[in-house]
């Protein structure tokens, strides 16, 4: 067996007039995340973690924000493409550990739904996905409710 570890990070500014997506789940909130795609910071962090583990750069290289085909793209669909790339290289996800950092909204009530969504996208058992929710203790852009960030660590397993 071959094991690979990757880490991912993403942050997007909150803005009015957009829906908020986190972990592939629409979260009711007055603002959404600003981005070329649906700006799901958690799925972007997971994508970056997988890409890092297989040595394939980052999400911006694969889905550039200058390419109109990715305008308002579903981050769930982008993650499926990333997972297909990992699969073609002989890897599957062992487990994922993630953190969402937001002052608002409270995402705790949505964690199980986000866990199910990510597990379904990656075709892994739900217990292989962990989601933690943190605030930024009112510090910086996140603390001022101007942004939301996500981190992800993934372990991939491949055959020798």
Provide the descriptors you would attach to this structure in a database record.
5-stranded mixed beta sheet; globular; 5 helices; 60s Ribosomal Protein L30, Chain: A
Structure explained in plain terms:
The chain is of the alpha+beta class. It has one domain: 2-C-methyl-D-erythritol 2,4-cyclodiphosphate synthase (60s Ribosomal Protein L30, Chain: A). Helix content is 29%, strand content 32%. It has helices at residues 41-53, 59-62, 75-88, 111-122, 140-143, and strands at 2-15, 20-22, 25-27, 32-33, 91-101, 129-134, 147-158. Strands 4-1-7-5-6 form a five-stranded mixed sheet. Strands 2-3 form a two-stranded antiparallel ribbon. α1 packs parallel to α3. It starts with a strand and ends with a strand. The mean pLDDT is 96.
Unreliable segments (pLDDT under 50, ≥5 consecutive)?
none
Give the oligomeric state.
Answer: single chain
Adjacency order of strands in the biggest sheet: 4-1-7-5-6
Strand content: 25-35%
CATH topology: 60s Ribosomal Protein L30, Chain: A
CATH class category name:
Alpha Beta
Order of helices and strands: EEEEHHHEHEHE
- Give average pLDDT, whole number: 96
- The helix tally amounts to 5
- CATH hierarchy: architecture: 2-Layer Sandwich
Largest sheet, if any? 5 strands, mixed
Structural class category: alpha+beta
Q: What integer value in Å does the Rg equal?
A: 15 Å
Count of the separate structural domains? 1
